[in-house]
Write the structure tokens for this entry.
Amino acid sequence: MLYKLLLGNIKMKTANINIRVDEQEKKHAELIFKNIGISTSTAINMFLHSVCQKGGIPFELKADTPNIETVKAIKNTMLKQNGNTFKNVNDLMKDLED
């Protein structure tokens, strides 16, 4: 919103953005956008506008929380109670082959 206050009603120039995305995700997103009646370009412009209005990413970013089994495995490995440790990659590879 601040950028609008600073710039007023100045007509903005357009710019191109080139990004690489997963092909299947792009196709899936395009279907969703088509179903709601907007183009991919419009959706991306809406996202950028929202970033500017909110002063950041317009949704929560968080790391995936591991499940209880994964947490136990991590703890066991850290305590070296469960699982092997290896001095080098060759020893690891030998263990994996067995």
Q: What stands out?
A: The chain has a mean pLDDT of 85. Residues 76 and 82 are 5 Å apart (CA to CA). Residues 2-54 form one domain. Residues 40-54 form the longest helix (15 residues).
